[in-house]
From TrEMBL:
PANTHER family cross-referenced by the UniProt entry: GLYCOSYLTRANSFERASE, GLYCOSYLTRANSFERASE EPSE-RELATED
Protein name: Glycosyltransferase 2-like domain-containing protein
InterPro entries: Glyco_trans_2-like, Glycosyltransf_2, Nucleotide-diphossugar_trans
Family: Belongs to the glycosyltransferase 2 family.
Domain Glycosyltransferase 2-like: 9-161
Length: 264
């Protein structure tokens, strides 16, 4: 998990509580401080550090962004199987158990994810569910058009992530192109067909995923996907038109589209 100064202390507390309340306990929890934090965040982290010996806190002197922080954070993880988590989401109690057991019984797979329940204020009032396909074949096809796994739910083998160079940090979102490179490298993915995480949705969620900069990053990712042979020219043209236009649409229209796509 990576945390930075703008994270909400109350959300971080809920997130950490969900990690330490799993039906299968994590042997090692690595919390990366991406630059100086607020006093309130430090208070939350110190409280958990005193309570749980398995929590390892790694401070970084300056904020460098999620991709770079996660890349360096991989070196601080003791074990090959790693669960990702964000500082404002909430794991369901059985998330680690379900995902870990799946990977342990499917040794030819490198990553497992799950659906997410999206909520605004109350995690029990789910607004939408982001469903992703199950089989590795379906995931690879789906990945030609959209991100095939929900990043905060993934549990992966570190060796397979490092084999493709980890997260590339030039473009956003960093995780999407990581999954593509892993799939191109022969990794097999699976998505549990149930929600294992409550994802905190806010008005900023859609606003952050738009604008000219985000749209240009989308085009760059599509170009890379084309160059490495992951997509064909027709798929590239289709993706650029749809995704670029969507990103530069006025925010109210993007919000309506997002709600339509995520409809439960």
């Amino acid at each position: 998990m990576s945390v930075y100064a703008k994270d909400n202390p109350l959300f971080l507390n809920e997130s950490l509580e969900s990690i330490f309340s799993q039906t299968v306990e994590a042997a090692d929890v690595v919390l990366l401080e991406d630059g100086p934090l607020t006093d309130a965040l430090y208070e939350i982290i110190n409280g958990f550090s005193k309570k749980y010996d398995t929590l390892k806190v790694i401070p970084f002197p300056v904020n460098r962004g999620l991709g770079k922080t996660l890349n360096e954070g991989l070196s601080y993880c003791k074990y090959d199987i790693i669960a990702r988590m964000d500082a404002d989401d909430i794991c369901k109690p059985n998330r680690f158990e379900v995902e870990y057991n799946w990977l342990k019984t499917h040794e030819d797979y490198d990553l497992v994810g799950a659906w997410i329940d999206e909520f605004i204020d109350d995690k029990y009032h789910v607004k939408s569910i982001r469903k992703v396909p199950a089989s590795s074949e379906e995931i690879k096809l789906y990945a030609q058009h959209r991100c095939p796994v929900n990043h905060p739910t993934v549990m992966f083998r570190r060796s397979s992530v490092l084999a493709v160079g980890g997260y590339l940090t030039e473009y956003f979102p960093e995780d999407y192109f990581l999954w593509i490179r892993m799939l191109m490298n022969g990794s097999k993915f699976y998505n549990i067909q149930e929600s294992l995480l409550w994802f905190r949705y806010s008005e900023d969620t859609v606003s952050k995923r738009g604008g000219w900069s985000y749209a240009c990053d989308e085009v760059c990712i599509q170009l890379r996907m084309l160059k490495i042979g992951f997509i064909s020219i027709p798929v590239f043209c289709e993706n650029v038109v749809i995704r670029f236009i969507t990103r530069i649409l006025p925010l109210p229209i993007r919000k309506r589209l997002y709600k339509l796509i995520r409809k439960v």
